[in-house]
Amino acid sequence: MWNERMEERIRQRVAAALWIGVALFVVLSVRLWYLAVLWGEWFRERSERNRVRVVFLETLRGNIYDRRGVCLAEDVPRFRLVFLVGSSDEELVMKRVREVLGRDIAFSLRERAPGELVLLEDLSLEDVVKIEENSERLPGVLVEAYPARKYRDGEVAASLLGYVGKVSPEELKALGKMGYRNEDRIGKSGVESFYESFLRGEEGYRRVEVDALGRVVQVLDFRSPRFRYSLQLTLDWELQRACYEALGRRNGVVLVGDPATGEILAFVSKPSFDPNLFSRGLSLKEWLDLLEQKSNPLLARPTQALYPPGSLFKILIALAALEEQVVTSRESFFCPGYLEYGNRKYFCWKRGGHGRVTFEEAIAESCNVVFYTLGLRLGPERIARYARMFGFGQDAHLDLSGVKTGFFPTPEWKRETLKEAWYPGDTMNLSIGQGYLLVTPLEMYLLLCAVANRGKVYDPHVLWRVLDEDGRVVKEVKPSLRRTIALRSQTWDTVIRGMEKVVTQGTGFNCRGLPVRLAAKTGTAQNPHGKEHSWFGGFFPSDRPKFVFLVLVEHGGDGSGEATLVARKVIEWILQNRGA
Amino acid sequence: MMRREHFFVLVTLCLCVLGVIAVYSVDPLRDEGFGPKSFFGRQILWNAVGWALFLLFRFSDFQWLFRRSWLWYLLSVLSLGAVLVFGESDETGARRWLFSRSVQPSEFAKLALLFFLSSYLSTNRDELDFWSLLVKSAFFVAVPTLLVFLQPDLGTALVLGVLWFGALFLGGWHRRKLGLLLGLVAGLSPLSWFIMKDYQRKRILAFLDPWQDPLGSGYNVVQSQIAIGSGGFLGQGWLSGKQTQLRFLPARYTDFIFAAFCEQFGFVGGMVLLTLFILFFWIVLEAAQRVGNLEERFFASLFGILFLFQVGINVGMNLGIAPVTGIPLPFVSYGGSSLLVHLAGAGMIARLIWRTEQEERERWI
Fold first, then answer.
1. Contact at CB, B242 and A18, closer than 8 angstroms
2. ipTM of the complex
3. Does B152 contact chain A (CB < 8 Å)?
4. Are residues A423 and A457 part of one domain?
5. How many whole angstroms separate alpha carbon B230 and alpha carbon B260?
């Protein structure tokens, strides 16, 4: 019924509605305060994340120079085609790119970063020009420069310089904290790997503002990638090249260095590979081909391959025998072509025998019988002690990654591992550098350095100095004395005289007649897989040595053959071009 | 002292001006300038028409509208039916428009129902608080509500439903009856889950936890909160909110215009808008209290309730405390139908204020 009470109630209801409105106003205001003021900062950051996209650009690596300033490795610009997803129709753009370039293209469509697809990599300049000319028709497509590593005559110094590649998932896990990203390049071997921290530069970035559809509105800022340091190596590029060419089609090693400082001047390993292939990005097939080649071109032979040293090891035996006074320089021996021990005959390499030889002649002729005798006089423990003194089986402290150490057998080792006693026959094999003994070419090179320098051994190194962006020297590697082997000076004199006779009247006859006093030793490493490996190593001028060299030719036959021929070319080149 | 009517006109005008400013700021076609090509140009044109209606109703007696309320009711039901048959769809697939997307009959249905309810209840004032009238009015409201629901336009259907409940509340129905009704609705609402469309269910879920799926169903809510939040206290300045300008904010000129406004003008700007809204509501309800005629009192207070509910739901969803339903912000959101309806209604309220002021003055004299 309509009455006063009802009318009053309606009036009250209107008033109530008013207060409901006020309450709502308060609730909305509080919420607005909460969002805009209390949490404003947090939301602003969200908004930033919404609109700003950061694309990181590959870092530039520093250059690598040789000691005379020849650039061996540098980053050169390559071009890739990037498509910004969402900025236009993908299919249409790809169709037009095909039209513009006038050929059918298989696009890689690799997602480099969220919202960025790489359409094509390694564009030719011609293609770049075509794309730029038609950029109006290609919305969302941009040509981006990226660095690629370029090596001068890649194969010549590949095992020393190494190569770079995309960082692997395992490396990323280990190095993630150091700022490596998915697409980054990293040194994989050699100098590139060992000096990664110097060579790696600063990454660049491009920050772009995008709208809700991912379209790029504007580029906010851009920092181009930079490198920080370049390296100058002790390597002499022309010499390296000469050594590489001297090996010709043979596989093997050439090492040349300065014994007074430890500087490595040439570091050749053959067969080699072209590290430029890695910068381009190897196909799986190319990579498998490289891995499966029997000759193993990826192996840095001077530091990673193990060989028996053969007669080159007699240098150590001779030093030890003289120093331990189990022989004098005047003692003479008789070589009938074999040595009988127990009821076995141990043969000299010269089946007819050397007849009567002095100690120095024994070095020159590399007479096995004499060294069997000396080995037996010394015994395995003393030989092992001298080997340790000269650093065999120990870290060579060379500034390259992946450097291996050889293996030096001892009676304890044989007892523990082979469960067999050490026989005098083992000692005799060891004395001529055969049997269980394995060395890296670098270890033999260091032995030669020790002799050349009369006991003072400097750490071998390939880095000379570190240069900053403007070419200023920020760090220089000083010679660092690793060990001093204190032998009597007659010991050194006698062995060096013997080594001179190797050239003048012994097995090193291929190097006879060079206008320099040369001390060297040949070696023949028996090889169960085929023809012997041929060694030749020494130094010159022998009275004040400036160059130590070591040549190994795989399957080169005996030591007086291939290796000496290679060495002769190297020495002649040095005498002609660098003086001695 | 300023007369109440003038103050009311000022508040309404401020809302409309801020609306145009807001629409301009999010207008992707603003370079087209004034005129029907740009959104803000069209909003200005609608404002011109709307204010013409405002003046029309301010200066003419609109009693005839009440007398023909049945006609408006039938017309709106018919046009809503026509929408379902001939209507044009929008991007979401809902049919809401007639005449090549220029007229949204559901907006006009709000006004028609307003007249119908106030006239129907006041003519049946003897039966107020009776179950029979409640059921009959429920039936009359249910018809257009169902038609709107079928479009589907959950938001407007909700508005019509709330209008009916508001009518019962303002019509003095006993608290127990209203409580029972509310209880019934609350008890049955879980069942509505089964008749909801998939996108509607997603919206409800997104409302409960938008950050669950910030790029999918929660996108609107999340982006709107980011916009409001990043506006901070003073805002990022006109035309410079990144959320808005880079179009991360969806439905920038309609449903989420409040968020776009707040990103640019901050907490302060938002409070200005909210204050204008509450002032508008306050004046309308005060007018309802002063007016002598029951029919007009119902009309004014229901108009206030309609306004309040739309503001509450719209701002609430912008702030993430109400589910996303396509309810425009009165006077501010881009859209002709809504603007015309609200300006016409405001014109009538202005007349009521003016008349009660006249009457009061005469009483004093």
1. no
2. 0.92
3. no
4. yes
5. 11
